[in-house]
Amino acid sequence: MRTIAFLLLATASALPENTVTIRVNATETVGPFKPIYGYFGYDEPNYTYTKNGRKLVGELAAMSGNPVYIRTHFMLATGDGTPGLKWGSTNAYTEDTWGRPVYDWTITDRIFDTYLQAGAKPFVEIGFMPQALSSKPEPYRPTWVPGAANPDYSVGWSYPPKDYNKWGELVYQWVKHCAEKYGKAEVESWYWEVWNEPDISYWHGSPEEYDKLYSYTAAAVKRAVPAARVGGPASTGPSGANAAAFLRQFLEYCNRGANSATGGTGAPLDFISYHAKGRPSVVDSHVRMGIAKNAGDVDQGFAIVRAFPKFQTLPIVLSESDPEGCAACSARVYPQNAYRNGALYASYTAAMIKNIFELADRRRTNIEGMLTWAFEFEDQPYFDGFRTLATNGIDKPVMNLFRMAALMRGDRVQTESSGRVALDTMLAEGVHGSPDVDALAVRSDRGISVLAWNYHDDDVPAAAAEVRLEIAGVPRTAARVLARHYRIDETHSNAWTAWKAMGSPQHPAPEQYAALEAAGQLQLAESPRWVDVRGGAATLEFSLPRQAVSLLELSW
After folding, report:
1. Which residues contact 27 (CB under 8 A, 6 or more apart)?
2. pLDDT at residue 11 above 80?
3. Are residues 77 and 88 in contact, defined by beta-carbon separation less than 8 angstroms?
4. Directed axis angle between helix 164-182 and helix 207-224, to 10°?
5. Which phi and psi angles does 421 have, rounded to 5°?
6. How far is residue 116's CA from residue 136's CA, in Å, rounded to a whole number?
7. Kind and range of the H or E element at 21?
């Protein structure tokens, strides 16, 4: 490692300014490349089966050979199924005039059917509280106005049940129904997560009451399907003291707490979930991302899990991991969210994927998923600045970052970059000086893939990096390798810039819409070409603009 670092410095000093040398040693495996990118979620369950919702679910499922998991809020909320920003309902549970349960799985089935028919799987968030079970049922449906304080958002749906036994029976009947409809083996492959962010206003109960809810929920899931995966607590970013304390007390409860549902000790825990968010701001009239906060949340959660020997090897799913916390907060109202339409969102996410893997390696934890809380909003203006993967059926650049990741196969291998921002610096202060020009590489039996990016927290114009990519570990029997170079930047895989070039139409003509669909797909930066191999090594050189992402695929 020291030799590689020395060579990088020596090479960098001999090259022109703004040149970055990235070295990949494909003979040195550092860990598996798990498909942590294949997890997605959103607030509004009723958008799932709209025209563009179905289209997006199909694209998500098709992008990867691995299962793609999808999570959504409000799966048990009371209402008529009309979608709205930060709201949804299924009417799964009501009661008759005698207080007897009435179960109706019509809408929940419609949501799960959409996932499964496309080839995706549910990441089931068990919540929120049906009105008939809420300990404070009025008011129930929330009021949410973009830009307002919204004190009446977390209302009746966010309260503990007035009867935990009825709640447990609701969960049991739901899981039992799913096993009967979809098959026990299928349901065993899903995640069943208890609630969402119970350390803040999504839960109007104490931590102890959440633990009680968890115990009744987990017992019900296991009673219906004993091998089903149940977990939580889906709490907020543990770089905050209160959130860290909540996650810690939950793990202590699952470890050796008094289980109010079973009378035993501890509670079933098959995976651990918590959230990690960045904190963008506006500085000198431009957006400054907050990647340090996002990475810090990840790291502090890993540290807490490592403190519990019983849970050290459990899968961890960051069941929301994003640049900030409100997908429905449009950049038109919240200017700090203006990163969402362009390539910056993609380069940020690429850097975070590597951060998450390296933090998990350092903390020796079992990272399973990094869930992106972004989907689509039906019947909203084109490119209105929501945190979405697509707008009116047109894919945004960030969608192509996930397509890039899904093309990568094999094990992670050693990379070194003269332009990298060190992980500890990223944690402490983000990327405020030199840009983070770095890479993540994987090797399979027949190829090497290198994901490279030029990321900076500050979204301001800057010179491109001239990248020299040196790849060692190509089989010596290969005289040449076929190189494919995919790119996300201003002019590649970027429907937003194509839309602006058209004059930003809100009612594109059919031929314009077709052109935008094509611009939203993953594109090559250049034609595929053969690259000579000498002594088991290949070298490629290319220009990498600020906030751009490249995927280099070498195959033989």
Report:
1. 413, 472, 473
2. no
3. yes
4. 40
5. -90, 125
6. 35
7. strand 19-32
